[in-house]
Amino acid sequence: MSVSFNTKHLTPFIRDDEFAAIYPQVAAAHEQLEAKTGPGNDFLGWMYLPRDYDKEEFARIQAAAEKIRSDSDVLVVAGIGGSYLGARAVVEAVKGVYHNELEEGLKVYFCGNSISPTALNDIIALCKGKRFSINVISKSGTTTETSLAFRVLRKLLEEEVGVEEANKRIYATTDRARGTLKQLADSQGWPTFVVPDDVGGRYSVLSAVGLLPIAAAGIDIAELMQGAADAMERFSVLSPDNDAYKYAAARNILYRKGKQIEILESYEPNFALMNEWYKQLFGESEGKDNKGLFPASCIFSTDLHSMGQFIQEGSRNMFETIVNVKTPAQDLYIEELEGNFDGLNFLANQNMSVVNRKAMEGTILAHTDGGVPQLLIDVDDLSAYNVGYLIYFFWRACACSGYLLGVNPFNQPGVESYKKNMFALLGKPGYESLTAELEAKLK
């Protein structure tokens, strides 16, 4: 199996009868999903997206990606949250953190995900004097971070190549029919791709939102979708052996036992952005009504030298979920060193991946002894197929887990609070009555 949930280290913390006891609730969550009767049921378009996606748009995405790769040195993707995290996560998982430096041809950079002038100036510097294209991703077209970056980059592009040529290098992923960005794209003649109405941002990576940047980076998106489709067939079936549901059940059993934090971990640095994608997926889906596990992440063995002490002996309010990548993209043979000045010859004559695995196994045993539950998600490798498979695994698990928790896993009402305050403090029209109140609080 490409992806499997491994419970062999959970026996000190969860008994088999506890899985049996929660199973009727898992079944009820499954029925809510399939019958579309649960809260947030108008955002279930992701469930069968890997099979039912728009094939005509998919072909247009592939064609646009080929054009970008042929006529551009740089693609800048402007988006925030689900409009960039999934795409960047897939690109770095499959091609590596340093893919832009190591590969010839198109460089793919992401912006519009902060309001930092330093970060945007760095992107501008990477684009100046180069042939660049822009993929702006926003359903409304008014998202502050993304729209601000796009405004600046569009002006730079028009100054460098002229308005007519610039319009051939801008690709908008937005609402099908309405919104500021859709209107602007239609008026300027930009190619447009659709943010589906029934797919929330954190579930959108396998729609045009993620697929265009992923394809432009040179990844086979047909392979990515096939992995997700195969996972869909497997994890859409109600069974005690459904690993996505069993992972959801384990999370909820531990939550009910007082665990408050889940740390997603991998021993592959290329997985770091997948960690970030997971944090948005589960954080936005479950963190409401004063409930939910706090999603955290680490990359080991790196973070064992910073967080290892706390995990080993700190507050017992957490558990770890390790994404175990069984085969690395590349391996390295360790040769014996004459003189053994570093004392590491005991590691010689084997592949470095063996050392990495033993570090993982030793850490799992130490943390288990320290009272930290260990969940394992085994993944064959980080090919496009298996990353697609893993994405769907997390989708199903998250949806089920949210219903087990008793929340709507497809909305995010809390994110509007900071926006309202920010707009009032910046003097946006319509927020005047709130401005004075907030400024008084800040004095």
Automatic annotation (TrEMBL):
EC nos: 5.3.1.9
A molecular-function term among this protein's GO annotations: glucose-6-phosphate isomerase activity
Gene3D superfamilies from the UniProt entry: Glucose-6-phosphate isomerase like protein, domain 1
UniProt entry keywords in alphabetical sequence: Cytoplasm, Gluconeogenesis, Glycolysis, Isomerase
Metabolic or biological pathway: Carbohydrate biosynthesis; gluconeogenesis; Carbohydrate degradation; glycolysis; D-glyceraldehyde 3-phosphate and glycerone phosphate from D-glucose: step 2/4
Any GO BP annotation: gluconeogenesis
Record localization: Cytoplasm
Main location: cytoplasm
EC class: isomerase
InterPro entries for the chain: G6P_Isomerase (IPR001672), Phosphoglucose_isomerase_CS (IPR018189), SIS_dom_sf (IPR046348), SIS_PGI_1 (IPR035476), SIS_PGI_2 (IPR035482)
GO cellular component: cytosol
Active site (catalytic residues): 284 (proton donor), 419
Annotated CDD domains: SIS_PGI_1 (cd05015), SIS_PGI_2 (cd05016)
Catalytic activity from the UniProt record: alpha-D-glucose 6-phosphate = beta-D-fructose 6-phosphate
Taxonomy, superkingdom: Bacteria
Record function comment: Catalyzes the reversible isomerization of glucose-6-phosphate to fructose-6-phosphate.
Protein family per UniProt: Belongs to the GPI family.
Protein name per UniProt: Glucose-6-phosphate isomerase
